[in-house]
Amino acid sequence: MKKIAVFASGAGSNAAQIIDHFTSPPTPLHSVEKGEQNPLIEVALIVCNKPDAGVVKIAARENIPCLLIEKEKFFRVDAYIKELKEKEIDFIVLAGFLWKIPVTLIKAFPGRIINIHPALLPKYGGKGMYGQYVHQAVLDNKETESGITIHYVDEVYDHGHIIFQATCPVLTNDTAASLAKRVAALEHAHFPRVIEQLISGIKPL
Ligand code: GAR
């Protein structure tokens, strides 16, 4: 059994998709290759820095332990490594988690932390580039295409090795909100499957 911790600070729509993917019962016809649920992977922990975030309610509803973290301990003490190891976490998934990941945590989980970003990196990434800011920048630059990027986390914001990208069109009448909706649909369609493939070894870690 491999255990995932999902770090999130927002509404938690990606966290909800990931939880759903790994809790729905598999049928004999389903296979990991097809991106179906794998009973050997569990979302064991939600980690959140905002007590009132939507993802906290999702964790409660789904009966998944939720660790609320504080800035001081995360950045200046031990990055909660002890708590993550106690829960036997193998893999960390950032799903709308906006704090930078401390080097100590990256070193404690080498090649085992991934992030999703709502644009086609290396464009439109970096500090302050999240949510509507990303989509507005894409519109302001008159891009005809946007999408999602799933990548390993390193010491630089939105920078690590890219694992997967998917694209969608940017329409002439798009607003940041309408583009966000199209990009979120891509995230929900691909993120759980890519996580599963990585952990199952179908995609190399
Ligand atoms: C997602 O779109 C994710 O790509 C983005 O935050 C959103 C969280 O939504 N992450 C970043 O912008 C990271 N730079 P959710 O809480 O509904 O899953």
Please provide a written account of the structure.
Helix 2 links the parallel strand 2 and strand 3 (66-68). The protein has one domain: Rossmann fold (3-Layer(aba) Sandwich). It is built from 7 helices and 7 strands; from the N terminus they run βαβαβααβαβαββα. The relative contact order is 0.17. The model has no long low-confidence stretch (mean pLDDT 92). It has 205 residues and is α/β, with parallel strands linked by helices. Helix 1 runs parallel beside helix 7 (176-200) and helix 6 (131-140) crosses helix 7 (176-200). The protein starts with a strand and ends in a 5-residue tail after the last helix. The chain has a 7-stranded mixed β-sheet with strand order 3-2-1-4-5-6-7, with helices on one face. Residues 8, 10-15, 95-96, 116-118, 129-131, 134, 158, 184, 187 line the site of glycinamide ribonucleotide.
Structure in a nutshell:
The chain has helices at 13-23, 54-61, 71-77, 81-86, 103-108, 131-140, 176-200, and strands spanning 2-7, 41-48, 66-68, 91-94, 113-117, 145-152, 162-169. With 205 residues, it is of the alpha/beta class. The longest helix has 25 residues, at 176-200.
What is the secondary structure topology, with strand pairs?
Layout: E1 2-7, H1 13-23, E2 41-48, H2 54-61, E3 66-68, H3 71-77, H4 81-86, E4 91-94, H5 103-108, E5 113-117, H6 131-140, E6 145-152, E7 162-169, H7 176-200
Parallel strand pairs: 1-2, 1-4, 2-3, 4-5
Antiparallel strand pairs: 5-6, 6-7
Helix pairs in contact: 1-7, 6-7
The structure holds glycinamide ribonucleotide.
The site of glycinamide ribonucleotide has 19 residues, from helix 1, strand 5, helix 6 and helix 7.
